[in-house]
Nucleotide-binding universal stress protein, UspA family
Amino acid sequence: MIAINAMMVCLDLSDIDEKLVAFARAICERLPVDKVYFVHNIKTSELSEDFREWFGEVDLASEIEGNITDIVSEHFANAAPHEILVSEEPNTEVILADLVKRYKVKLTLLGKKSKGKSTNALGTKLLRILPCSILVFPETGAFNIEKVLIPIDFSNTSVHALRLSKNLSDQLGLQLEIMHVYRLPSQFFPLISEEKAVKKAEEVVKEKFTALQKQHPEIVGIPYTLVRAANKSVAERISLHLEKGRHGMLVLGLKGNNPIPSLSLGSVPTEIYNSDINVPLWLVYSEEVIK
């Protein structure tokens, strides 16, 4: 059973906060969550001299905490025990990573605005450094999740995400679909016919699925789809299939074996995050990777 001992919800005082808090409530109503931390950091470096001249030494932290309290009272109520944390630090990523470690946060909920409204630069940084799994909720997202897409590449991290998704579907009655995007070694064309290459590639992948099902019998019966990347990236194929299948959530496993934090996220999750998908994106780290 999936249970969350602590969840952190990152707020930025924009319009998306209300949706994010309401989505946090939806999670708490469907999964056991011990405690939720609603957090916001005031970047002291962004407080200009003009601000100080106009407003003086106002207790900004108390004002913001009051604003967040109003939103939480309206959209979260008493869905789970919760606490509001407002800090004043020059580096938001560092303080949030520290909160994850301090409160043993297992899941961070992060809002994402559409392209044109924000660069989402802070979100990209948080994906790279927060030592926990992250659920990204786009401003166009919906709460009624019924179908979940899990792309896998047969790595340990993607298999972990798949097994976690299976546990989630058993708890909540969700429909799962596995997806694998493959590429053909085009440098060998026309020496080998494209038709034969496609057939051989799909045979190899199906053998991998069979071996995976033998190793993890709990995933037997979950439908899977093979998609050729062709002239598109893996992330683009995932996005197209996500829209075509009308899935309500996308789950991706994250690799964490690179010692350089800025390189540990992976190109596919990065490209997916930076695209305009309109469903929640669950980026999953395994406990071993986090440790």
Q: What stands out?
A: The radius of gyration is 21 Å. The longest strand covers residues 175-182. The chain is about 40% helix and 20% strand.
